[in-house]
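Teaching note: in complex prediction, the entire set of molecules is handled at once rather than each chain in isolation. The prompt given to students was simply: 'Predict the structure of this complex.' The entities are:
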Amino acid sequence: MNGAEALVRTLVQSGVELCLTNPGTSEMHFVAALDRVPGMRPVLALFEGVVAGAADGYARMAGKPAATLLHLGPGLGNAIANLHNARKARSPVVNLVGDHALSHAPYDAPLSSDVAAIAAPVSGWVRRSERRADLASDGAAAVAAAHGPPGQIATLIVPADVAWSDGPGPEAALAHRPPSAPEPEAVRACAAALREGPAALLLSGSALRREGLARANAAAAATGAKLFCDTFNARLERGAGVPPITPLPYFPEPALEALSQLRHLVLVGTQSPVAFFAYPERPSELAPPGCAIHVLVEPGADADAGLEALCDELGVVPAPPSTAEETPPSPPTGRLGPRSIGASLGALLPEGAIVSDESITAAAAVFPQTRCAPPHDWLFLTGGAIGQGMPLATGAALACPERKVVCLEGDGSGMYTLQSLWTQARESLDVTSIVFANRSYGILAVELARLGVAEPGPRARSVLSIERPVLDWVALARGMGVPARRASTAEEFHAVLRASLAEPGPHLIEAVY
Amino acid sequence: MNGAEALVRTLVQSGVELCLTNPGTSEMHFVAALDRVPGMRPVLALFEGVVAGAADGYARMAGKPAATLLHLGPGLGNAIANLHNARKARSPVVNLVGDHALSHAPYDAPLSSDVAAIAAPVSGWVRRSERRADLASDGAAAVAAAHGPPGQIATLIVPADVAWSDGPGPEAALAHRPPSAPEPEAVRACAAALREGPAALLLSGSALRREGLARANAAAAATGAKLFCDTFNARLERGAGVPPITPLPYFPEPALEALSQLRHLVLVGTQSPVAFFAYPERPSELAPPGCAIHVLVEPGADADAGLEALCDELGVVPAPPSTAEETPPSPPTGRLGPRSIGASLGALLPEGAIVSDESITAAAAVFPQTRCAPPHDWLFLTGGAIGQGMPLATGAALACPERKVVCLEGDGSGMYTLQSLWTQARESLDVTSIVFANRSYGILAVELARLGVAEPGPRARSVLSIERPVLDWVALARGMGVPARRASTAEEFHAVLRASLAEPGPHLIEAVY
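The expected output is the structure of the full assembly:
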């Protein structure tokens, strides 16, 4: 058995069922092995940024890793941005990268590059499989490393001659390390801090599911603490009947304000909050000076158990889910914009929807209005590397074929990885993409204004605006096999969204405002 | 003066006139400075792979660096593949990457990553400007480092607070290091090797202009040596009246055959030839065992002076340019394919054209047929990282607005960086893109067959074919503001190519076969 087949068999035995790829010559033995081994579904993407973002979306929804299959340093380079987002989401990813044969490595051939060096900044685990005899066990180790917890990018570099050489067969799966349990001492300290106040709980990671949210709400209500989640989270369960939580604001001024009165901040599966960017004369740390930081559980630890123990310590019992009727927004009318788009989504989002949100400047108007929609999951831009939205939606749809996926996408950020639409069409994925066509890098205009440049000159304007020429997203989507429609009033958008959600398969709506 | 303005002024004084960018928040001070400093033209691309490839194309044609402006680790990551190609082309690039403020670096904010580590594998020079007082001199050093020779990627990382802080003004340009002169001893040894034979000259880099080719042809003719250039070259001057040269074949078998009888190989501005990929039972080195390797000049050295000295040593004088009428191909008829497309190009390519060639499997049929077209420059895929063709064409057109640029692009590789078309439309660049729509990763089908997999199974086929769904390149181009037409017979293609070349501005032709 050649190395490629032993590796594929090992991955399948370790529970990896999906291989997202854009392969090259060095990966052809792996590709050929896919036809000899049942259980691994290959999905082609036309660009590696789609591969990486889809692996992230799959991991967030499936709770386990997909494999990527990338072509040497440049293929990995194209995946870096969305691997960065996956790293910040703590998503498990088995990141397979082909490389030149070991025998070929000394010769500086055109495609030679230092693959391990390119992988290191985004990977929690990197191994180059240099002996055929170790390849299968390296594969099993990569899957275990990806699982963590917390999840991480496990990069396995596979030289072509290690893949093509004959040798031992597959290895069995390695056991996963369980998430660590909460420390009783930490639970007592956090409970005391909440009782003393003024305090807040800050949640992220696996705490952001229905049960964790119920417990966190109960603990906050019993102690008068505030309750926040991170600004950007891998996955947040929300909607009617799901206990609510407020993300920390994006810009430092309102975030500082939100935390300004605190003497205690309790972290549940996240880090101490920091500003997204630094600004002159603004602090990086968002908790006020003197605020004590308490860790209930670290990222990747058992957040549910931690919150349960906290409730026990506080002697509180989570309230049963609310059965009160919550009123979603009415269908909007008139001018189209983030506010009316949010109202349509709030009214039409189906139960079990998965929302991949890369709407950037539009998010502030959209997010609150979907609060009362039927229960759904919200996936955020975790690492700030744009081009995540459509790939993430692609991977989420591969993980959850029975659920409707909605992608909220800026027109600027969408252009980074528009190739996602082709994979959505090929795999008949149930994704409705909404492109917020404001024809600018809106967030950068805001940032420039924050520098005091209220009236940018022509050169600055030229790199913030994308209106000349106008991007025709309907043509772009159709060019990749995705049916698309344009809407320019609130009524039009509402009707088009309703129709798109009613029909299975991929759709794109260009919302022009 | 803030650091950003001091840096922009320094770059302009150092001869950098073009800034290719997709900026973010950390780069806003630089963007604002562009409006205060004359002499730096900003050109926006919708994806950093376009930025990097355009910087490469500009450098190959302008002979000097453009600046990039990229946003932290993920923006740099998106540029890695085309920076890899630029590195292999030895193109000078001033690669500016914004980073978090130094004060913000300790906090692991969402966009934090190790920018220097991501940059190192593609850069010949990396510096992080950590003191405001050094920023301008770091900028001048980056330009000098980019120039080399040989040209290289000089990455300057600019923390946001270094850019926004006040401090000293710009620095003067640093002198460029001249290319090193040929060593008389090396010239004598190469001349003796050519006389002794059987020998060949292998050229790349700056030797591939009219004068160098004339001298190399004279030296080869006088000694009976064979004459080759690398398979992939940054820039090759060719066409009617330009002394010809044959690239080494891509696959190792014909390349080994071409060099099989040699006892001496003389290198002019290149490395000893190696196979692009390794294959089982095939050597990596292409020169036969026992063949002596002689270096006339290293990459980046003065190849013209080396070839002149070689001719002097051999006592030969280059022949005057041929004035014989060479017959370009006739307009083709019938079935459309690489052969007929090549014939149309050979018949229609205008004098001074610049051809960016990423036609992959089609190149073997196209390249020879353009041999007798009027003099033109041919730019190759130097590093094997696909997605180079359209960005490179974009940069070449920015460098040479008075010349016609033709981009030969595979449909698979074109999808990597199709965002280039938008920049071509915005800047009204005179680029005609020809998409070879064979609807497959044709080269991978060849590679799979070389493994002995003549009939790939359904899973392997699914990752080699891109025909389901069909990509509509006419829609994709129009979606980005580029007029486009489809051709599916040789006559149609010929007419459409003639019309596209006759009309200034960007065009795309989807050649379906």
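Point out the following to students. The first strand of chain A starts at residue 18 and ends at 21. The longest helix of chain A spans residues 72-89.
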